[in-house]
Specification:
This protein has 609 residues and is α+β, with helices and mostly antiparallel strands. The protein has nine helices and 24 strands. The N and C termini lie far apart (113 Å).
Length: 609
């Protein structure tokens, strides 16, 4: 019995404890958090070995993060916490652009477990009172001695590490839009020189790792991407010959043959890395070792040249981004993780986790519909706002017109009932003004004879009133003579024209504002389509800028863009149904009015012609 109880307790704990852990919240001042997965499994980045202290790039854009409005305009309230939801992680923001819905954030991950997809971190946001919490120097471990983002936020002297190895000479041009935010462009006439320093010295017992993202549009003539060479001829070069990357090491014994890799594609970005130390020289292309050999490293104390030597020889022509130098030998798994996380189509970083609110009672993510709405761009909301105004106007017209038509139908029935009760003789005598209490100069006399009712907004009574007044005025005219004298066919035609004119005016009143419904029917879908097209354009532009090209990046933005089309149809469909319904009622009223006009004028013709 005790064993049964113990099993039940353990089972209950297994169910409840994960839920309790997921309900934990790092800091209650932050309103939202998102789980960002790190996938080293074969279906992800496919990195079998573990890596420590890797600066991972997290790209956020409209395709994978629709909540820029909930983050402070400068991204100051972003925070990153380890999977225990307790330990804050070092990070810094390279670029945060809420207008274009783009953010590039570097996060130092203490450990990436090789071959698994169980690693993740939390991203917190939604604290208007938070101060900036980024720490660029803390994002990198002590072995990282130089990192140039070339971002416009950092400027020319942009070493993001704690060592601040700023350029002594800057002969390149900064580009605000590059592979990762900003970049540096080299035209073959200038280079970047970094002065010799203790931290930049190549030590035989520690080694060195140099990496950068490179794009060339044409083959190079033995161009140096990164190089260092002392006065005794000891040198280390990462370069390009034609379209082939190479690594070259020269020692006091002499220069060794260069390690060459297969040609890279022109006009595309590639991650090149050189690693020397531990008795080996290796060349990596896009995170994989392309060439390597055993080689003894010697100390090199010399300036670092980027894009060619200070003298201008071996000049590089192309674009460079994210230059990193470590005074240690990085593992192949470390380089693979860094390369993959920074790439346009990263399989390591999955930022599509569900967002949770701090005050959520069940800890679940938002519904798909709410998530879609929160991905709608500003221009999409402008179109949706216009459609909402059109919807309100069309609903007002529908309700007002339905009420009016109901009153018209009711008053027409009342008028016809009173008109029929009078009999044919009284109907015409009323038109002639022969009743004792009928006043020829007062239109209200006709109303008084018809039960004393105004019959507004009947469409029949105005026709009868127009005809009756026309008959009275003609009977009063000296040209007509006695009331019993007959009218000519032309006079009857004139009376009919008066009645027809009243009929047209009543038609205009009935159809008044109906054009607003036709505008909603025809214009609503087109406005919605406009919002969708613009939203899709912005989504693809954001994806192109961020470089995250996959279905998960595209789907949320496209779904949000389609909201405008749904809104347009939501305006047009009710308006279309209402227009047809109201139109059929107006047609019936027009037919009834037309029949009455013919009947009334024909009775006058029988009496007076």
């Amino acid at each position: 019995m005790n064993n049964v109880r113990l099993c039940l307790i353990l089972a209950l704990a297994a169910v409840l404890l994960p839920g309790a852990a997921s309900a934990a919240w790092w800091n209650k001042d932050w309103g939202y958090r998102r789980e960002i997965k790190l996938d080293m499994s074969p279906t992800g980045a496919n990195i079998p070995g573990s890596a420590t202290d890797v600066p991972v790039l997290i790209r956020l854009h409209s395709g994978n993060f629709g909540y820029f409005a909930d983050v402070k305009p400068d991204g100051a309230d972003l925070r990153f916490v380890a999977s225990d939801d307790v330990t804050p992680l070092k990070f810094h923001v390279e670029r945060f652009d809420p207008m274009n819905q783009l953010a590039l954030v570097w996060v130092r991950i203490p450990r990436l477990t090789g071959g698994t997809s169980s690693d993740f971190v939390y991203m917190y946001y939604g604290n208007p009172g938070a101060a900036a919490g980024g720490d660029a120097a803390g994002t990198y471990d002590p072995n990282q001695v130089l990192v140039y983002h070339f971002s416009d936020a950092n400027g020319i002297a942009g070493d993001s590490t704690a060592f601040r190895n700023a350029p002594a000479q800057f002969g390149a041009k900064l580009a605000t839009a590059s592979f990762i935010a900003g970049g540096a462009t080299f035209d073959g006439t200038g280079s970047i020189a970094v002065a010799e320093s203790p931290t930049m010295r190549v030590l035989a017992d520690r080694g060195i790792t140099v990496s950068a993202w490179v794009k060339i549009d044409a083959p190079q003539q033995d161009a140096y991407v990164v190089s260092t060479q002392d006065s005794s001829g000891r040198a280390l070069v990462l370069g390009l010959n034609g379209a082939s990357p190479y690594a070259r090491l020269a020692t006091s014994v002499g220069a060794r043959p260069a390690l060459a890799a297969p040609d890279i594609s022109l006009g595309e970005w590639h991650h090149l890395a050189l690693r020397a130390g531990d008795g080996r020289l290796s060349l990596f292309v896009d995170g994989a070792e392309a060439a390597g050999e055993d080689a003894a490293l010697e100390e090199i104390a010399a300036p670092l040249a980027i894009g060619g030597t200070a003298a201008g020889t071996n000049a590089f022509v192309g674009e460079l981004d994210e230059l990193e130098v470590s005074n240690s030998v990085r593992s192949a798994d470390w380089l693979k993780a860094a390369s993959d996380s920074q790439g346009m189509t990263s399989k390591l970083v999955d930022p599509f986790g569900a967002d949770a609110r701090r005050d959520s009672s069940d800890g679940e993510g938002e519904s798909y519909f709410k998530t879609t709405l929160r991905n709608v761009t500003a221009d999409g909301w402008v179109v949706i706002g216009i459609l909402m105004v059109m919807f309100v106007i069309s609903m007002f017209v529908i309700v007002a017109k339905a009420v009016l038509l109901s009153r018209v139908e009711r008053e027409n029935r009342k008028f016809l009932a009173a008109y029929r009760r009078m009999g044919a003789g009284d109907q015409l005598s009323l038109a002639r003004g022969e009743k004792e209490d009928a006043k020829l100069d007062d239109d209200e006399s006709v109303k008084e004879e018809l039960s004393g009712h105004s019959y507004r907004p009947s469409t029949l009574f105005p026709l009868y009133l127009a005809g009756a007044m026309e008959v009275r005025h003609r009977l009063q005219s000296p040209a007509v003579g006695a009331q019993r004298r007959g009218f000519s066919s032309e006079t009857i035609g004139a009376i009919r024209a008066t009645v027809d004119a009243a009929f047209v005016r009543e038609q205009q009143k009935l159809n008044n504002k109906m054009v607003l419904l036709t505008i909603s029917i025809s214009g609503g879908p087109f406005l919605g389509l406009l919002g969708t097209v613009v939203g899709v354009m912005i989504t693809f532009a954001a994806i192109a800028a961020s470089g995250d090209v996959n279905i998960n990046a595209i789907a949320p933005g496209i779904a949000a863009a389609l909201v405008a089309t749904v809104a347009g149809l939501g305006v047009a469909i009710p308006a279309m149904f209402a227009y047809n319904w109201l139109g059929s009622r107006i047609t019936a009223i027009d037919a009834e009015t037309h029949v009455f006009a013919d009947e009334f004028v024909n009775k006058l013709a029988e009496q007076y012609v």
